[in-house]
Amino acid sequence: MGRVLATAVRARTDLPGCDTAAMDGYAVAGAGPWQVVGRVLAGGPAWTSALRTGQAVEIMTGAAVPAGGVAVLPYETADLTGATGGTRPHIRRAGEDARAGDELVGAGRLITPAVAGLLAQAGADAVPVHRRPRVRLLVTGDEVVGAGVPAAGQVRDVFGPMVSALVTAAGAVLAERLLLRDDPGLLAECLAATDADVVVVTGSSSAGAADHLHRVLGEAGADRLVDRVACRPGGPQLLATLPGGRWVTGLPGNPFAGLVGAVTVLQPLVYALTGRTVPPAPRLPVRGEVLVTAPVTRLVPVRLAGDHAVVVPGSRPASLAGAAGADALAVLEDGWTDGSAADLLALT
Length: 348
Description:
Blueprint: E1 9-10, E2 20-21, E3 25-28, E4 35-40, E5 55-59, E6 71-74, E7 91-92, E8 103-105, H1 113-121, E9 134-140, E10 144-145, E11 155-156, H2 159-169, E12 173-180, H3 184-192, E13 198-202, H4 213-219, E14 223-227, E15 231-232, E16 238-241, E17 247-251, H5 255-274, E18 283-287, E19 297-305, E20 308-311, H6 321-324, E21 328-332, E22 341-346
Parallel strand pairs: 4-5, 9-12, 9-13, 10-11, 13-17, 15-19, 18-20
Antiparallel strand pairs: 1-8, 2-7, 3-5, 3-6, 14-16, 16-17, 18-22, 19-20, 19-21, 21-22
Helix pairs in contact: 2-5, 3-4
């Protein structure tokens, strides 16, 4: 469950495999009246001879309909005299859902409960899926503490629970979380010594004296694909690949800014690695007072209100209070005004 099919899955047999009763009742042949000549149970012995006109067998839902059977009369409405006309057949015909070799589920489909049931029904006991990528989280900062009430000058690690929830929802596994001092050598060592598919670094992607990620990536021969985004908050976000194919994302250290970076860069990356498609962003009118200044795009927390969304006031880069009370982030681009439509990125 929750994995994504790597290849299409085809039916190994016809579905259903034979004509089966869709109701409990009587399988009848020809026109009535009908004489009941036996009983057929689901999973029991098959009726070996063809029914002749005027014959019927008592039958249970899911049992194979004998040859010659043209309809099943449900117990609730059965009239074996044949006086009732126009009955529905209540027979599931062999192969009406799929024929052997038909594609049942395409590659890239998320395995939902219904998909899992269909695969089992078709006899697909083992199917190839994309594996869950492993994510390693490196939370940098001399001031960051991992538990308890922070003292003056300290802050709690918010990225451990926040990034864990985000990557898990996207289908990955948070394999490890480390709190690191602001030490470029230690950061380089932790980037190199990992078997994770994605390394997330928080609080080191800007241009401050303690922000070492750019230098460390340069020395490691990384290819920086995204290096800052013209948005507020969350501008100093980063996406890079290391030699060997591992991914690195850099998130701003301010909590709300880091959340923006995680939703816009990290989560789509994880979706791609798991074989999923990024959920489409609904577009709704957004109401509220927000200043949008070109060329920077603003991302603001909003609550859904039927056919529109309402800005949650008071959001700041270092505060998660607004986002915690929101359903989504509205992407307010140049030209947006109160009541204009905007794309919404879900926060659930």
